[in-house]
Amino acid sequence: DSGVTQTPKHLITATGQRVTLRCSPRSGDLSVYWYQQSLDQGLQFLIQYYNGEERAKGNILERFSAQQFPDLHSELNLSSLELGDSALYFCASSGTSGGNQETQYFGPGTRLLVL
Amino acid sequence: GQQLNQSPQSMFIQEGEDVSMNCTSSSIFNTWLWYKQDPGEGPVLLIALYKAGELTSNGRLTAQFGITRKDSFLNISASIPSDVGIYFCAGQWTYKYIFGTGTRLKVLA
Predict the structure, then answer these.
(1) Which residues does B87 contact at the CB level (< 8 Å), separation at least 6?
(2) Per-residue model confidence as pLDDT tens digits over A14-65
(3) Secondary structure of A30-44 in the HEC alphabet?
(4) Which of the residues A27, A38, A85, B4 has the least number of beta carbons within 10 Å of its own beta carbon?
(5) 3 state DSSP class of B81
(6) B90 reaches A (C-beta below 8 A)
(7) What share of chain B is helix, strand, coil (3-state, %, to 5)?
(8) Nearest-CA residue of chain A relative to B4?
(9) Is the Cβ of A60 closer than 8 Å to some Cβ of chain B?
(10) Is B39 part of the contact surface with chain A (CB cutoff 8 Å)?
(11) What is d(CA A99, CA B78) in angstroms, rounded to the nearest whole number?
(12) Which of A43, A58, A101 sits opposite B88 (nearest CB)?
């Protein structure tokens, strides 16, 4: 168990809908990262938050947004969903904002299926 | 997005054989990480490397941080069926993590 929790584990919805994925980082970790993994593909970095503030953006669509709350949990919002958004969405956390000896731990993921 | 070059992409091996995979990059990293991912699950951290030249073991796994800081390898000795999965390397620099494309390992009993 990595200590990173994600809910829900599975999500089935229809095109055009909006969903929210939730992540709680490991105790004490300030950074949260979101990744998308399509079937048999690698991990695509979406966005990172550090202590409530956006730190880095990857290949995140404009239809997607995220935030990190004062208690450090994070939510990823996906709107106007399309079939191609079906994927595994992972959250990961790390201790600091990017110093040496950084290690990232992953949650179990949310499997999103858009029908 | 940016990714590391990881090879091989996939491999079939006999149970008991040793396995070697590596990652290379044109950029230097502060940290190299190796993860294993089972189908439908989140990547699990296997080994973390923090210093150029560092050689670290975790059971049957051994990984090294390349001297140039641009590469890393992972060896698995005496493979067993539960080693099946996808292995990812990741390089960390400041707050950025770049992932390899993965090595899909299949073990034949």
Answers:
(1) B21, B34, B35, B36, B37, B46, B74, B102, B103, B105
(2) 999 999 999 999 998 999 999 999 887 788 889 999 999 998 888 899 999 9
(3) CEEEEEEECCCCCCE
(4) A27
(5) helix
(6) yes
(7) 5, 60, 40
(8) A42
(9) no
(10) no
(11) 35
(12) A43
